[in-house]
Amino acid sequence: MKTHLPKVNLDQRKWHVIDADGAVLGRLAVQVADILRGKNKPVYTAHLDAGDFVIVVNAEKVKVTGKKEKAKEYMSYSGWKGGEKYRTVEQVREDKPEFLIMHAVKGMIPKNRLGRVLLTKLKVFKGPKHDHDAQNPSELKASN
After folding, report:
1. Tell me: the pLDDT tens digits for 101-137?
2. Per the confidence metrics, is the pTM higher than 0.85?
3. Which CATH number does the domain 14-63+96-128 belong to among 3.40.50.720, 3.40.50.970, 3.40.50.11030, 3.90.1180.10?
């Protein structure tokens, strides 16, 4: 028997808008990662890019549960001695709230060439407006 390999039609990719207002960060990231990979489609294949584009708006209004707002830290390293920086969720939310969602989704997709391509299909915006009205995105509700 031969293995069936589905044809992935790149012209039929859809665009989805998800409002992050009040959504829990981890649950939102799982939903976005599944759409990017195409796990919500019957033609899902692990090694193919069958997913859709995702636009996340209101990134600054995403919620974290428990004490993570002050306790969870993101580390960055400049490459120099003593060049480690630790920033809390609260500090990141003030400067670059898009990073919170991008970082969470990046951790949930494969760490290879396919994962890097999938991440280019994610667009995150700080406020309620986005630049992709021409693509006629459909609205999705963030799962809580």
Report:
1. 999 999 999 999 999 999 999 999 999 999 999 999 9
2. yes
3. 3.90.1180.10
